[in-house]
Amino acid sequence: MRRFPIISSHVFTADGGKYDVSRVLNYTTYEFNLQGYDGYRKMNLSIFFIYAYGLGFATLAATISHVVLSMDGIFVRQPGLNVITELIIGYIYSGKPLANLVFKTYGYISTAQAIMFLQDFKLGHYIKVPPKSMSVVQLVGTVVASSVYFGMAWWLLTTVENVCDPSKLPEGSPWTCPGDGIFYNASIIWGVVGPLRMFGRLGLYSKKNYFIIGILSPLPVWLLSRMFPEQKWIKLINMQIIIGGAGALPAAWVVNY
Asked: What is the pTM of this model?
């Protein structure tokens, strides 16, 4: 019997209904309501949501073994970093979604922005743009972009009725905010209910931890590169990037790839 959509970033009850977060979250203190949770139901996820988190752990494991085997150093990408930040703070401050959001913002989003900043500097270096000019352009661009983003977000929130609420928007509306939706639901999964009751011994998805087997994925590439050293392209195969390619599912759909 079909209960959940295949691709969804929302959370559900066991019968496929919308999960009532107010039953497990104290809106006065914004902390986990254990009594409410025990008297309600366990939280369920769509299959792609589960796989997205599992592949995040597999990507992290593959990154570690890739560095150990090939000694490539640090990558330009930050595969699975959002998952590890949510996991760490989820165990340290279980049941505190605001702490989870703040830690994720500083631990993952700030790092991702810094890496994008470095990527631009690297491109400027390749095309012989002076570092001082690159710094000025980056600073001005950051100020302009952040101001425009904030202004547009404020305008949309105050002018578009039911923005970011797909259940109340007309069919085909572009204002569903899938990225913000997954950010919110991740805070419920990791910050309110917490990793122990979702992916640990008390949760429905403890088998997701088997994705740690991703630590073995770079091994065949390493062995082949040793067996055929004349084939230089083999060393360019990066398993953690291949595995992490599905990391945007959800909120991205298959068509986005």
From this structure: 0.78
